[in-house]
């Protein structure tokens, strides 16, 4: 018997993570992004990371359409941004500072780190698709704390 969905969600909520906004585009100039913490390092040679995208997300088709995404790792100052990108609909990028990376996906201002990726593999996984991306451009900032997520709530590393 599979475990209850809510219990499973609650279980995984005990695995403390950072928070990212995955950005991409639809290949025709429209930008998309969603808050995500199902991110993981997979391989060093070649460098590969994975992200998992809900098939029901509005931005879902754009990941396949463009074949690129950028992982924006959020700082402790970016909880409001995380909340904005965790809701479907609306003009998510209005009033948000960003520049387009070489892969055409937005790099958000003031993030802790980012990785511009090209999709190398995609795997069907229940109600999500797992994308393996190769990071081609990366950058990190020192002296900046991460935004954390634990037991369904945002946390600060110093709290
Ligand atoms: C902390 C946090 C982590 C999340 N992680 C993921 C994730 O890894 N993958 C995913 O598809 N959705 C994740 N979500 C949910 C999406 O952010 C949410 O469904 C969003 O509305 C999708 O936006 P869209 O419909 O505009 O694409 C997460 C939400 C939060 C608050």
Structure commentary:
The chain is built from 3 helices and 12 strands, in the order H-E-E-E-E-E-H-E-H-E-E-E-E-E-E. A 7-stranded antiparallel β-sheet has the order 3-2-6-9-10-5-4. A 3-stranded antiparallel β-sheet has the order 1-11-12, with no helix packed on it. It starts with a helix and ends with a strand. The mean pLDDT is about 95. Helix content is about 15%, strand content about 45%. Bound molecules: flavin mononucleotide. Flavin mononucleotide binds next to strand 3 and strand 5.
Number of strands: 12
CATH architecture: Roll
Q: What gap, in angstroms, lies between the N and C termini?
A: 38 Å
Count of structural domains: 1
Strand arrangement, largest sheet? 3-2-6-9-10-5-4
Q: Can you list the ligands bound to this structure?
A: flavin mononucleotide
User: How big is the Rg?
Assistant: 15 Å
Approximate shape = globular
The biggest beta sheet is recorded as:
7 strands, antiparallel
CATH fold annotation = Pnp Oxidase, Chain A
In round numbers, the mean pLDDT is 97
Provide the CATH superfamily: Electron Transport, Fmn-binding Protein, Chain A
Number of helices: 3
Q: What is the helix content?
A: 10-25%
User: What is the H/E string?
Assistant: HEEEEEHEHEEEEEE
User: Which regions are unreliable across 5 or more consecutive residues at pLDDT < 50?
Assistant: none
Percentage beta strand: over 45%
Structural class: mainly beta
The first-level CATH class name: Mainly Beta
């Amino acid at each position: 018997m599979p475990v209850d969905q809510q219990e499973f969600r609650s279980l995984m909520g005990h695995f403390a993570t950072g928070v990212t906004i995955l950005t991409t585009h639809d290949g025709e100039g429209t930008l998309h992004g969603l808050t995500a913490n199902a991110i993981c390092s997979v391989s060093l040679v070649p460098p590969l990371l994975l992200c998992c995208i809900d098939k029901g997300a509005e931005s879902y088709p754009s990941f396949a359409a463009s074949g690129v995404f950028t992982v924006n790792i959020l700082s402790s100052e970016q909880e409001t941004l995380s909340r904005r990108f965790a809701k479907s609909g609306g003009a998510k990028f209005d009033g948000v500072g960003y520049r387009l990376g070489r892969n055409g996906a937005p790099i958000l201002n003031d993030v802790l780190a980012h990785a511009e990726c090209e999709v190398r593999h995609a795997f069907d996984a229940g109600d999500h698709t797992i994308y393996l991306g190769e990071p081609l451009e990366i950058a990190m900032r020192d002296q900046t704390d991460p935004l954390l997520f634990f037991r369904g709530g945002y946390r600060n590393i110093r709290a």
